[in-house]
Structure formats: C-alpha cells, structure tokens
Amino acid sequence: MSANEMFRKSHTVIISGCLTCGMFRRTYPSVEAVYRDYKDQDVDFYFVYQTLQHPENHSYVQAFSMKERFLQLEVAKKEYATTVPWLLDTFDNNWKAYFQVRPNSEIIFDNKGRMVHVQPWVSQPNLRNALEKLFGPVENPTQVADLGLPEIQPVSKADRTGGVKRVKVSGNALTVSFTPLMSEQTYYAKLRPEIDQALYDSGKGQMYIGLHLDPIYQVHWNNSAMPVTYELSLPEGVTASPLKGEGPLPDVESDKDPREFLIDIDNWKARDEPIGIDIFYVACNKEEGWCKPVKQSYEIHLKHDKLQGKVHGRTFEVDALPQRDSENRPRQKSALAESLKLDTNHVEGLKLPARIGGG
Predict the structure, then answer these.
(1) How far is the C-alpha of 153 from the C-alpha of 19, rounded, in Å?
(2) Contact at 8 Å (CB) between 82 and 47?
(3) Which of 89, 130, 216, 266 is most buried (most C-beta within 10 Å)?
(4) Would you state the pLDDT for residue 27?
(5) What is the chain's alpha carbon radius of gyration, rounded to the nearest angstrom?
(6) In 3-state terms, what secondary structure has residue 114?
(7) Which residue ranges form the domains of the chain, and what is each CATH number?
(8) Please, what's the b/e burial string for 59-98 (b: 16 or more CB within 10 A of its CB; e: otherwise)?
(9) Per-residue pLDDT for the chain (359 aa), expressed as one digit of tens each?
(10) Which of 16, 12, 37, 11 lies closest to 128 in space, CA to CA?
C-alpha cells in the first residue's frame, strides 16, 4: 500500500490492535463511535492488525505466516463486528517497528504523512477532542451503547477441557526466537519456547516448551492415539534433561489443553548455535471428520525476542494489567510520543501495511 493510497484525505486516523490486546478489546467500541460521527468528513479511519501482544489470551497464538495472520484478521473482524476498515501489518512487523507503537496506539496523520496527534494508548476523549479541533464538534455524539456491538471480555483464560496441569519457569520468563522448519503439514499446534533469566545470562537454567493448539484451525488432541511428544537435538557440549518427553493423556477422548514441558539446560552459551526440537502429535477436526499424525521441527535460538508478545502470568504478571478504562489510566510516555516531530516524523520510505476491505 502506497502513502498516496493511505493518505487520500486531509487526515487519517490509525489505531493499532490485535485479538489479544486487552486495551484494544476495551477501547475499540469508543473508536467505532467516533468513526460513525466523523466518517463522512475529510478523514479516513483504519485499525492496523499487528502481531499478538498477549498470546494465549482467549487461546489465540502467534501466526507462523502471513496467511495465518490474514485468518486471524478475519476472526477479529467477525468477533469485534467492526465497521472501521482494517490494515494488516507486514509479517516483519514493519509498521510496529517503524513507529515503535504500543499495542493500542492512536495516531492522526495529515495528507503528507506527518503525525499531528499521537497517544501511546487509545483515549476516546482525546481522539474526539483532536477531531473536533480539525473538523468541529458534531451534534448528538454517538454513544457506544448506540452501536449494538458484542460484549467483549478484555482478558480470558482458555477453558481447560482436559484438566492438564500448567507449568512455568520460576520468575518472569524471557521469550526467545525460534524458526519453524519447512513442513508440508499445517502447524496446527504452535511452539512457544521461553527461558529463565539464569539460562539467558549463564547458559544454565530452565527452558519452557509449550505446544498450543491454534484456534483458527478448530482442532483438538486425540488422546486415544498417542501422547504429544518431543525430542531435542543439541549443539556440541550442551546437555538437557529430559532430552525427550511425552505429555499426559487425560481421561477424556480429546481436549485442547496446552502440552507444556520444563527442561533443564546446561552449557548453552553460543547465541549462534540453536537447539533443535522435533514434535509429534495427532491433530483431529471433529466437524470435518479427520485425524492426522503430525511431525514438525523447529530451531530454538538463545536470543530474546520481544515481538513474540507477553503471556499473562509467565512472561508478564497479570496483576500489572491496568484495571481502569484507558480514558482514566495514567498517561505513560513512550518512544512514539517523545519522538513526535512534525517536520520529520513521517512515513516516507516505510513499507506500509496491506489494505483490507471494510470492517
């Protein structure tokens, strides 16, 4: 998408969001209300769908491809019942990285691509006030209650259908980068590797391996067939215990609970020497009437990867979540707000998100 396509009108409002950001889930209705009041003015509105901020919230997990991110966006449009058109960030997260945006930032651009209004978090009063200064107030402003939008819960833990015990490393874990290796089979289950601070700092510590079913594929584990299993392949000199393992088989025919493992790692110090892991499982889709044995492989790298998002209770303490609505939350400074310079901070040279059809 070119800058000329995005900035067709005198101003453009862009709100970032995803399926797992609690703040977006709270605030998008207020943006829809403002959109209804100003959509016929000389201003465009877009939501930008980004990489997941809090994987596992409402069971959603990070996409492994642009195709899967498109599928997630379709789910978001349906779940949120939005009318604001969507843009989709590149798979390299170009938009998010360029503007250093938070998961629920609001920006107004002029038609030259310069930011004339920015908030690190969406605030309906601030957004409406900014548009009133540009286009004037409207009579009888739309209220969220007028829109008939679905009731959306900001944070929700996955239903435990098999009663499988959850595990985690001590303290807040670090997300690490990983590479799904080429597979002819769909990645119905997604790997989530995390490590403790000791392993990152010294090469000796614990690694968390989580295997989470992707809800966009509507599959479940087949507990009558085989347990979920893994096997590691290690760089020279690195040790791991257990080197291989299998998950539980609950006393139910099928379930969707994550399969999680804690592994003790020693002498993993080389950042450029990944640990390999093979995963074996049977995925089933009841509605379509099939079960498939799956083997998939990954490389796990000793590199902190912030773009993997933060999981409540493991890499991010849920108590740290703001309980108040964003309109009343304390203002937080961000690199985005602090770097606002109207003469230079614009989108020239940026690979812009793809434009997706209306709401």
Answers:
(1) 11
(2) yes
(3) 89
(4) 94
(5) 22
(6) strand
(7) 3-155+321-355 (3.40.30.10), 174-308 (2.60.40.1230)
(8) bbbbbbeeebbeebbeebbeebebebbbbbbbeeeebbee
(9) 655 677 889 999 999 999 999 999 999 999 999 999 999 999 999 999 999 999 999 999 999 999 999 999 999 999 999 999 999 998 988 888 787 778 889 999 999 888 999 998 898 799 999 999 999 999 999 999 999 999 998 888 766 677 898 999 988 899 999 999 988 899 999 999 999 999 999 999 999 999 999 999 999 999 999 999 999 999 999 999 999 999 999 999 999 999 999 999 999 999 899 999 999 999 999 999 999 999 999 999 999 998 899 998 888 644 333 333 334 443 333 444 343 333 333 444 444 555 544 45
(10) 37
Residue 23 CB: number of other CB atoms within 10 A?
Answer: 23
Compute the C-alpha angle 260/265/266, nearest 5°: 175
pLDDT at 285: 96
Place of tokens 């978001």: 76
Dig out the tokens for 9 from the structure: 């009108």
**CB–CB of 17/48 below 8 Å?**
yes
Give dist(CA 260, CA 279) in Å, integer.
12
What is the sign, positive or negative, of the torsion defined by CA atoms of 78, 14, 45, 123?
Answer: positive
Question: Alpha-carbon distance 28 to 36, whole Å?
Answer: 12
Instruction: Round to the nearest angstrom and report the end-to-end CA distance of the chain.
Output: 18
List the Cα angle 192/197/202 in 5-degree steps. 115
Provide the residue type at 152 as one letter: I
Query: For residues 254-274, b (16+ Cβ closer than 10 Å) or e, as one string?
Result: bbbbbbbbebebeebeeeeeb
Q: Which residues contact 11 (CB under 8 A, 6 or more apart)?
A: 42, 43, 44, 108, 109, 110, 111, 116, 134
Angle CA 14–20–21, to nearest 5: 50
